[in-house]
Amino acid sequence: MSNRIIHWFKFASPQSFYPLAGKMIPWFWALTAVFGAIGLWISFFVAPTDAVQGEGYRIIFIHVPASWMSMFIYMVMAAWAGLGLALNTRLSGMMAQALAPTGALMAFISLWTGAFWGKPMWGTWWVWDARLTSELILFFLYIGFIALQAAIDDPRRADKAGAILALVGVVNVPIIYFSVKWWNTLHQGASVSMMKSPSMAQTMLWGMLIMALCFWMYSIAVALMRVRAIILERETHTEWVKELPEVKQ
Amino acid sequence: MNWNSPAEFFAMGGYALYVWGSFVVCAVIMVMEPMLAKMRQKTILRALHRERLAQELDKQ
Amino acid sequence: MPFDPGNSRKAGFDAGFLFRTPISGTIRPSMLSVSDLSCIRGERRLFSGLGFDLAPGEWLHVQGENGSGKTTLLRALVGLSPPAEGEIIWRGEPTHRLGEDYRREMLYLGHHGAVKEELTPLENLKLAAALDGRSLDDREAMAALHRFGLKGREELPVRFLSAGQKRRVLLARLVTRNAVLWVLDEPFTALDVKAVDMLSALIGEHLADGGLAVLTSHQPMPIPGGKVARL
Amino acid sequence: MPFDPGNSRKAGFDAGFLFRTPISGTIRPSMLSVSDLSCIRGERRLFSGLGFDLAPGEWLHVQGENGSGKTTLLRALVGLSPPAEGEIIWRGEPTHRLGEDYRREMLYLGHHGAVKEELTPLENLKLAAALDGRSLDDREAMAALHRFGLKGREELPVRFLSAGQKRRVLLARLVTRNAVLWVLDEPFTALDVKAVDMLSALIGEHLADGGLAVLTSHQPMPIPGGKVARL
Amino acid sequence: MSAFLAIIRRDLLLAMRRKSEVLTALFFFIIVVSLFPLGIGPEPQLLKKIAPGILWVAALLSTMLSLNRLFATDHADGTLEQLVLSPTPLGLLVAGKIVAHWLTSGLPLVLLAPVLGVQFDLDASALGILVGALLLGTPLLSLIGAIGAALTLGVRGGGVLLSLLVLPLYVPALIFGAGAVEAHISGLGATGHLSLLAALLALAAFFAPWATTAALRVSLE
Amino acid sequence: MSAFLAIIRRDLLLAMRRKSEVLTALFFFIIVVSLFPLGIGPEPQLLKKIAPGILWVAALLSTMLSLNRLFATDHADGTLEQLVLSPTPLGLLVAGKIVAHWLTSGLPLVLLAPVLGVQFDLDASALGILVGALLLGTPLLSLIGAIGAALTLGVRGGGVLLSLLVLPLYVPALIFGAGAVEAHISGLGATGHLSLLAALLALAAFFAPWATTAALRVSLE
Ligand code: HEM
Ligand SMILES: Nc1ncnc2c1ncn2[C@@H]1O[C@H](COP(=O)(O)OP(=O)(O)OP(=O)(O)O)[C@@H](O)[C@H]1O
Ligand SMILES: Nc1ncnc2c1ncn2[C@@H]1O[C@H](COP(=O)(O)OP(=O)(O)OP(=O)(O)O)[C@@H](O)[C@H]1O
Ligand SMILES: [Mg+2]
Ligand SMILES: [Mg+2]
């Protein structure tokens, strides 16, 4: 049992994770490219024109994956942060810190594409609908996390403080998410009308799923890149960093 | 195939501003973000390298 | 929860209570022992491999230049910022495991004012005691303040006091708190000559009573004995 | 507006400039003279009828117990809180009428930190000079900081410095500011032995150069000469 | 327990001593509420409609403003260190501070809200719901706010960072709180909203002191 | 003059160093603006109507929050004493601090307002008027705020007292500023409001630094 734990901790140490991440990154980029190519091809060339929304609906192929990712990344980030707080592993905090900017950007993409979709469909860039507002709040939670970590100099302290905030925020996520119930929402209605024809829904669903996979791979790849930089920044004074081939050459 | 000409493709049935406005911004973000991450990595590596050189010079 | 020194002292390492009465001439086992301590600030290692033992009645003078890490050491001792390496043992147990049992027997007064400027010295003293779970009556509190030369200032908000008087309000906790281990960071700052003598005498009494003290100061300490740790 | 000491010294009482070079053996007319000063705090009269004269090269040691009114006197001298009675004359004119001309020649460092915790020592020093209308180049600022033993800490935010190091950052203004009258409230607080010696030597130089100083301190002052005012 | 009462007493005493602190927090609430008619114009129908929202936002901002003083002054003068080193469990002291904060900044708002509500022409039953919602909501604001205040302690730009952290967390309280009154006015009944608010309060009362304590320890390290 | 620039530089440097202080003030503005729809409900027509009022109140609150840091930190660490004792005329330094305050807390709001205005469905010309009004109004807020900040320096309960003093003085700016946009939307033309705002600004630019200086001297005594 203790052996297994030690084994586990070995991968959780920045020293062994750094090269591992380096090896994984190209693979994830390749997958991103593959899924992206297929997804874009379906989005623009396979999926037919929508009966109600014309070509404007094609925004869905980035809007929905980005929206999903923004929520999912928050959960993952909070999980890493909680793990770090509980087990005091160094890597967890770094992972959380690496994920936050990607999550914030995903939330931003969701907001941006939603606004660019709303203008032609609803005639306005923005309505204070529950779904839209909760996405905005999620964006603020990310910004708060990033700002808090940036404001604390000592990385260990920053990790712990960020972890507490992320965990508190995670309680908030489902609440704002379910607050849809108490609001009359414009967002849902529009999405239902678009799914009228089943055959169309089929290709669209596939396009969306494949684009979502592309966003997944992208997020992993970019977070791994960032975590490698963070590892180096924080472990500057350790021996193993000095012995890295990148540093030596 | 939905499109008869590239022009039609780029016009997006009159929704060009909105569709391309979304996709381009998304693409820009997804290109910039890895580049920024890469730069961050390069910066720290350069600093580490310089420090190492300084240490070696110290030893001599 | 009235404070009961007898009871609290039995907490932790039981035999500790015996050593409260100083037995001159015999070798007393140490109550506070620190081994192989090291502290890092930013990327700077301030000290490492530091170790010492203190038995009842002994005191440690932490010396060193400005920025050598005295305050850092004291903060590590009391548990405000954990050390990078090393252990701090109190009555045979690591302090971070003792928690409240350690804090009940220890009193730390730092560089900071740590008094409320809006409250009067009397209120400050009584509330500080109440927060430690101990009630202090007016008479005791007044006696402590008078002892520290604050007669006539008991009811004046601390904001109006002079630098040295503020310091005295803080130091008055030494007599009302009844701690075994005193950790004082430059206790003589801002005090005039008379107050310095008085405080030294007080520390002397505390030691004679079987207490322990860890002090820093740039001035020579008019207290006999004492181990020295140079950073 | 680059700072020109020659010019600034001519401001106010013109002959002042002559007395900058100490003329040993001759009786020098006083530059700062205080007569019949009294200060009241709340309903308490801290002191009254206080008077003294300082000529170039002389310094005043303000002594007194905690709360006797030393800080109050110093704040009155520099114009932060006007005295209840009495006048403060600088180069023959009351200071409250001189205004900026007086402030240009005077430097007051009090109990307070008076440095920005977020900025580095270097930035603190340069910005303080800039606010006095004087530009300080990196070299000069560095030299001042090194003189005060802050080598290697020039770029570390002051927040991280130790109590003594913070104090040194403030004191470094003594060498960059070029004032004639130094008013220092307990300048030795938090400094280690080496720094105390260094600062005393610096004050000595300043006096030898024809400067004036008003100091408070509870410790004996290792500076020869000096008038004494006991509160 | 005596320490718990002692810290409440201490904080109330301090609030009294920093004279009129409670009063001014109240005035802030009043002023913010009164600014809106000035900025929006005097249409009674419109004002009545937005009244619950405005009252709640004002309550939220006024609580948020007073969060600063929750730990920051204790931190600056070093008494917080002493609290952490006190033999009393820190969680108890923190809970006491939160209670005191609510007593000085939340409770007065609750008492004042009906008066302001009348100015916006809310009727008696709506005012009742408003008070009920505030009574459940303002302790929630104090509890959540304490976490933010502890996290931003001694951090650069603390004050504004605090609002950045705390306001998104306040959103549920705002939605259910203002929603309760609106639901009541539109005849839907406010029980749903109020019970959700109560559930949130119970959750926060359980977790917030714990999270705050953890955050404080981190901040002091 | 060099001291004037130096103090602006210093305050900007401090704002940058307390990292993201400017950014967080901005976010505060955004969050407050977003809170209202949450409290009031999502009807676009209603929201459009109250948008100018909300934006102005938010600008006002966000400026007010940042007033605290105008003198209070300098006061607490003793640098303010040094400023008062500096040979440079205090009025000049104070003016510099006010300019720096506007640059870090007013200007960003002006730049951001159009984006938020779009969310409330204001059209391009209304947005233009909004920006113009804020451009005249936010310096006014900084100038008036500085007086309040100086008066409440070191006073017990300063933070909230400050808002009590300052908010009433902000009312004219609020009325003319929000009024300009509303007048434009209802087709009345905004020139009248804007020129009144400009006149107020000129007046304040002349008197406020002087009053602030006087208040500072009193506070330090
Ligand atoms: C700024 C504006 C918008 C934001 C912030 C936004 C946000 C979101 C979020 C968070 C989701 C994921 C929720 C889920 O999976 O249930 C989502 C999904 C979706 N959005 Fe949006 N959205 C916006 C505008 C729009 C517009 C204008 C449309 C279409 C007219 C639209 C159509 C959809 C559809 C079809 C889905 C996926 C299906 C669903 O889950 O209902 N969104 N959006
Ligand atoms: N982030 C950091 N990076 C580098 N050095 C740091 C950092 N934080 C603190 N330090 C250094 O750590 C030391 C802290 O020292 P400490 O406050 O313990 O000194 P001290 O012995 O109490 O000094 P004093 O006599 O002045 O009170 C200082 O030298 C300070 O410069
Ligand atoms: N409002 C007031 N009512 C009564 N006494 C007051 C009031 N304000 C200040 N005092 C007293 O005035 C004195 C101020 O002294 P000051 O700060 O000048 O002392 P000091 O000589 O500098 O002392 P230290 O050596 O401690 O720095 C103190 O004794 C204080 O108690
Ligand atoms: Mg120290
Ligand atoms: Mg004094």
User: How much of the polypeptide of chain A forms β-strand, as a percent range?
Assistant: under 5%
Helix count from the secondary structure assignment of chain A? 10
Class of secondary structure makeup of chain B: mainly alpha
Mean pLDDT of chain B: 87
Q: Kindly provide the radius of gyration of chain A, computed on alpha-carbon positions and rounded to a whole number of angstroms.
A: 21 Å
Oligomer: heterohexamer
C-alpha Rg of chain B, in Å? Answer: 23 Å
Principal-axis shape of chain A:
globular
> Which ions and ligands are bound to the chains?
protoporphyrin IX containing FE, adenosine-5'-triphosphate, magnesium ion
**What form of chain B results from the Cα inertia axes?**
rod-shaped
**Major sheet details of chain A:** none
Write the element-wise H/E pattern of chain B from the N-terminal end onward: HH
If helices are DSSP runs of H or I spanning 4 or more residues, what is the number of helices of chain B?
A: 2
How many domains is the backbone of chain A divided into?
1
By secondary-structure content and strand pairing, the structural class of chain A works out as mainly alpha
Can you write the helix and strand succession of chain A as a string?
A: HHHHHHHHHH
The residue ranges of chain A in which pLDDT falls below 50 over 5 or more consecutive positions are: 189-194
Largest sheet data of chain B: none
Helicity range of chain A: over 70%
Number of domains in the coordinates of chain B? 1
Distance between the termini of chain A: 41 Å
What does this structure look like?
The complex is a heterohexamer, with one copy of chain A (249 residues), one copy of chain B (60 residues), two copies of chain C (231 residues) and two copies of chain E (221 residues). Helices cover 83% and strands 0% of the residues of chain B. The termini of chain B are far apart. Chain B has one domain. Chain B is mainly α and 60 residues long. Chain C has nine helices and nine strands. Chain C has helices at 5-10, 70-78, 95-98, 100-105, 121-131, 138-147, 163-171, 173-177, 193-208, and strands at 32-41, 44-54, 59-63, 85-90, 93-94, 106-109, 181-185, 212-216, 227-230. Chain E has eight helices and no strands. Chain E has helices at 2-17, 21-40, 44-76, 79-85, 90-119, 124-151, 158-185, 191-220. The longest helix of chain E is centred in the first third of the chain and has 33 residues, at 44-76. Chain E starts with a helix and ends with a helix. The chains are: A mainly alpha (249), B mainly alpha (60), C alpha/beta (231), E mainly alpha (221). Chains in contact: A-B, A-E, A-F, C-D, C-E, D-F, E-F. At the E-F interface, α2, α3 and α7 of E face α2, α3 and α7 of F. Bound molecules: protoporphyrin IX containing FE, adenosine-5'-triphosphate (ATP) (2 copies) and magnesium ion (MG) (2 copies). One adenosine-5'-triphosphate sits between chains C (41-44, 46, 64, 66-72) and D (153, 156, 160-165, 190, 192). One magnesium ion (MG) binds at residues 70-71, 111, 185 of chain D.
